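re: ur question from the group chat, yeah i did fold both. here u go
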Amino acid sequence: MMTKVLIVDDALFMRRLIRGALEPLGFEIAGEAANGAEGVEKYREIKPDLVTMDIVMPEKDGLEALKEIRAENPDARVIMITAVDQRDSMLHAMKLGVSDFVVKPFDEDRIISAAEKALGRTAGSGEEKR
């Protein structure tokens, strides 16, 4: 069964970068959203296995969206995408139970390893750890 991923980022090029890193490994990009409000809506609709979430976005930021998603599903697997200078936001997200962080700029390997870790897999195996 393919792993469904929701990518939430206001920058189209970032969504494309994440899609380009994960799709070749068999991840199904089930949806994309350009802000946190849309991200929460799509989360409810798609019920993805994994979410990549930018922190700084218009309308509703990633932390607010993360809070709403975790309120609905405490086991939601969310990777926060953040700029280097957002340490306070990172600490806040950790308290909310985020699966991992990826700091921009990042290379494809970093997003892949974060996705594998969030899903409890060993890198590259495609197998879930039991």
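okk and heres the other one u asked abt
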Amino acid sequence: MQTRIENQATGTQIIVVRPAAETGGAFTETIIVLPAGAQGPPLHLHPLQEEHFETLEGILGIRVGNRTVVVPPGRSFTVPPGVPHSWFGVGGRAVRCRAIWKPSLHIEYLMEELTQSANRRKSKSPSLLEAAYVLHRIRGEYFLAGAFPKELQILLFAILALLGKSFGLVKAKRN
């Protein structure tokens, strides 16, 4: 069964086509729909996962380190584990692409909870405390690139997650 995750503020949709439960955790396959002008996540990295993109419609841009890779329809690009990246539509047009994370790890939990947090806020972005809680729950799987060293991010996520939970400001569920 497909799961649709939608950010109500941006219209960005993530359709989970093949969840981890179907693949034994080997991979998670999604279709991502970015409306014209919408952006993907901030510059980040997955130390333990590769992220494979195949553009179906529009033109996908992938920032990889200091360069931008343009992926037109019918083409694909794989971001190796540990490489900082972000993605976006090129030319102000809508984009539809397939994205596959190998192995799955907790990518579905991450996408679902951060999107639900953003929707609760009626915002493009999740709350800082809920994002910290989710990232603390999956520690070591996802980091913001260029922000703080990984070790400091792990510590900050733990402190913010504890504060958020203690004050009842985190609605995200445990994975």
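fwiw on the second one: The longest strand covers residues 50-57. The mean pLDDT is 95. idk if thats what u expected
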